Amino acid sequence: MTVELGHFAVVIALVLSVVGISTPMIGLKSRNGTWVVVGRRAVIAAFVMLTIGMATLFYAYLTEDYTVKYVAATSNSKLPIFYKIAGLWGGHEGSLLLWAWILSLYCMLAVIIHWKSQPVVMPYLIMIESIILCGFLLLILFLSNPFERNFPAPLDGRDLNPLLQDPAMVVHPPLLYVGYVGLSIPFAFAMAALFSGRLGEEWIKATQRWTVFSWMALTLGIGMGGFWAYYELGWGGYWGWDPVENAAFMPWLVTTAFLHSTMVQEKRKMFKVWNLFLSILAFSLSLIGMFLVRSGVLSSVHSFAADPGRGIFILGFLVFMLLLSFGTLILRSGKLRSTVKLESMVSRESIFLVNNLFFLVALATVFVGTLYPLLMEVLELQKVSVGAPYYNAVFMPVALGLIFLMGVGPYIPWRKSTPTNIKKLFVRPLLIAVGALPLIYIFGVQKPYALAGLSVVIFVLSMITMDFNKVATFWAKRQKVNRGQGLVEAYKSNPRRISGIIIHLGVIILVIGVIFSSMYQAEKILIMKPGEEVTIKSFRFRMASLYSVEGINWGGKEALFDVYEGGEIIAQMNPQKRFYTVSQTPTTETAIYQLRMGHLFVTIPEVAPDGTWARVRILHNPLVTWVWAGGVLMAIGAFMNILRKTRRKRSPASESTGMLPEVTQKVAADVTAGAVQQTR
Amino acid sequence: MKQPLRRILLILMTLMLSIIPQTVIAQTESLPPDLAMADDSLQEKLREVSRTLRCAVCQSETIWESNATLAIQMRDIVMERLIAGESPDEIRAYFVSRYGDYIVFKPRFRGLNLLLWGGPFILLSIGGFMLFRNLRKWTRPSPKADIGADDEDLRPIDEKQRKRIEEELRSLR
Amino acid sequence: MKSISAWHIFLLLGLFGLFFIFYQGLWGDPSALPPVIIKEPAPDFSAPELYEKENIVLSEHLGKVVVLNFWASWCQECKLEHKFLLALNKHYEDNTDFVMYGVNYQDEDRLAKAYLKQYGNNFEHVVDLKGKISIDYGVYGVPETFVIDKKGVIRHKHIGPIMGDVYSDIIKTKIDPLLAEGATSS
């Protein structure tokens, strides 16, 4: 009966979320702080309840309790224990519960961390997060209940989808959810700022790390998903512009834009409405993404299983949240005609604006590309598919513009720059980039797209190197250490800048990986019999043999390839075609051999029933490891940003946080009490 | 004189190529046309075409990526047509005539689709223009002094309010 | 204070447009494809019969109404419609202007024969070895059924099993009128 306990705990969590919505409201109205304390307790209790709910489900997985419908659908007694646990997020219902649990964890942490420093925000934060939680719990309890029993119970579970039986897939969904849900914190702070009318820089400073953390999780989650697709789906690519991928990519784009534009507000107190808009948009997109993925409006043949009631509920929730947030933005930002004042057209402020323009156009590209088929369907026109050719033609130029800006923005001074310092800054890197063109051309890179990409990359790289060099020398001289330590000193003195540039460096590495692995990929699909050979670039593949293999819960065929380069054998590779007996699904297991930071990649998507021939896909993916190396470096940069020590002096931040703490607190309290009155 | 002759020979050879594997298959039944027979340039073309065609039974995968039976069969048909000398566009047109626009991942440049292809660039230019105009406006020196935007958050509070607030804050702890 | 700016209106219009598309999208079936090759000449084929290994050639049946049913032994819905297919063929048994073929799709001969043995059979089946016929007809799943008129033009396509109302409808409104039509252009 443990699952019933979990079910009951989640019901209580729903009640607690209603408490979390109502008590801060009452508190604001009656101007009585005790109510907010009740809200805080409700938030913590809801987290405990959801944890119990999760724990009982885990228990059901581990004890192989297949009377629970959801457990039976996503697990099997033969599964390794690792995948039994991952079964929880292997389907719609459980992954929603995970989502709700992460949400309540975030909410609790935010309440505890900011309780003292952000008293104004607390009632609103509790309220907004509880509204979201309430929506999710209603969806879980009434339309996608993972605790539902199943009588008579099946003898064994139907098995976790074999495609998900993979280490990367175990961590990929939680990471993405941590990213999506984390965006609710800046969202809630932005809403709090709107409601309370305290529209300064406070909310942005308070949520900066939350945003960076969510961004990091999204980056890692998307990267992990790409990595999984790369070797599990077996077609040698990591990004397919699939609606589900786009759903994760869109919040990422907006969050990235947001992280950039908030810097302008922090330094120059401009673009307040814009930042509020971006933070609301980022979270809205993660909700829209959820709708697209879970309602079945976009997926193709797999969609008939989707429950229309579910889609309607999610849409209703989405409409409510979007109207609430954007409506508040429209109604409350009217008084915020913040005086924008720029000294020069060529300044870091204006480059940030151009950066935001490019990010939003990039978002529009992905958004329109994802929804266009749906639009055509609704308009009852000819059905269309939008895929890689579209994104390559439309998204890539915009992305190239963004990469170019990475070499400009961080190095242009704030406020104003003169022609002489522009010349001093950019002439050399530009010359290097242009000068390198004939060299890379001779080296063998001759496709125009690749040349354009690489010259931009070289420009940015030389900007970064020159800057790092300058900074390192400066700090080395000042602290009398060597230049490597100088860089460390630089990080200590301005961690946000250095970590930001490290993220840029990660992007550059990723882009180089993408350019080479997509444009210089060599690939063949052919039928091979044992003993036959095929040549790709300088590699010779010989299929030595083709034989049967068995696993714990699958059977299948395996091929043995000898790979030669220049007459010498360099590797042996064993791709497999598996058939999972319980779920009756075939999978293709990739064989990958890493070589000079690229991959040799072999799969056998089809094997003749009599085992005499196999259809073979062979690829050489040059520099493909750079894609993930870049992603990891981006995450490291983000992590360095989060771990930094908060500076107390010499930064404009101190103007509001460090300065006269009692006054700020009093103002805060004033607003807490007065805001409700103000809104009337 | 030499050119046309060579051409005819080539056509004859490709014709034979396209006929022989088919007839062989019709007899042996289980062996698909051996794609390895095709040269590298054909493989390159096959890849180019296949990567724009949707596998009708898959979830947004191209027939190049997908390992579904239908995708494999469609790929074979693409190959056969390439060997027969059809151009990539002709092959795409064939699939569109059977399955509709849905089957190609590259919406055609016509009608509403033009907005899809051009939209982002239009947006970029409109946005760029508006940004430029606003930047010019913002950079023009205005007679009004720069007002600290934070000021509006700092409304003065009187002594009475202050006391009440302090009490409330205490009660929050 | 509360001045309405252009961006307010754009934002709200965009939001409501989005909601509208999403709401409408919920009722659409993303997997349903509009039939494309209706009113087009039926692609000809010449392929072996399942048992005889003799080729069936579609163009030889010009002047007759042809029903093509794409099926497979692994297809669950095909089992539902099978007895209706048998009845359909029986219904037109004496009509020399009617002919019906099954097209066995992505299947193995052995399994297909076992299927027919189990569920019964009274018409001939074409083996679609390489999926060529199916792709020529724009088939993306089974069962799908095509009705071709006497001039060799595809007049009707049905996706999904033929049973119940669909069965009587296909006889009355699809096949009968076509049988009544002349073979030459009127």
Structure overview:
By secondary structure, chain A is an alpha+beta fold. Chain A is about 65% helix and about 10% strand. Chain A has 20 helices and 10 strands. In chain A, strands 2, 3, 4, 5, 6 and 7 form a 6-stranded antiparallel β-sheet that branches. A 4-stranded antiparallel β-sheet of chain A has the order 1-10-9-8. The model of chain A is unreliable at about 300-305 and about 650-680 (pLDDT under 50). Chain B contains 6 helices and no strands. In chain B, α2 crosses α3 (about 70-85) and α2 (about 40-50) runs parallel beside α4 (about 90-100). The model of chain B is unreliable at about 1-30 and about 145-155 (pLDDT under 50). Chain C has helices at about 5-25, 75-90, 110-120, 130-135, 165-180, and strands at about 45-50, 55, 65-70, 100-105, 125-130, 145-150, 155-160. In chain C, β4, α3 and β5 (about 125-130) form a beta-alpha-beta unit. Chain C is elongated and about 80 Å long. The model of chain C has no long low-confidence stretch (mean pLDDT about 85). Chains A and B meet through α2, α13, α14, β1 and α20 of A and α2, α5 and α6 of B.
How many domains is the backbone of chain A divided into? 5
Helical run tally of chain C: 5
Report the end-to-end length of chain A measured between terminal Cα atoms: 50 Å
The secondary-structure class of chain C comes to alpha/beta
| CATH homologous superfamily annotation of chain C | Glutaredoxin
Query: Residue-averaged pLDDT of chain A, rounded?
Result: 83
Which spans of chain C have pLDDT < 50 for at least 5 consecutive residues? none
Query: What gyration radius of chain A follows from the Cα positions, in whole Å?
Result: 27 Å
Under the CATH scheme, which class of chain C?
Answer: Alpha Beta
Shape of chain C: elongated
CATH topology of chain C: Glutaredoxin
What fraction of residues of chain A sit in β-strands?
Answer: 5-15%
Order of helices and strands of chain C: HEEEHEHEHEEH
- What is the quaternary state of this protein? heterotrimer
Task: Give average pLDDT of chain C, whole number.
Answer: 83
Task: Tell me the domain tally of chain C.
Answer: 1
- Main sheet attributes: strand count, strand direction, barrel closure of chain C: 5 strands, mixed
Number of strands of chain C: 7
The global form of chain A is globular
Computed CA radius of gyration of chain C, to the nearest angstrom: 22 Å
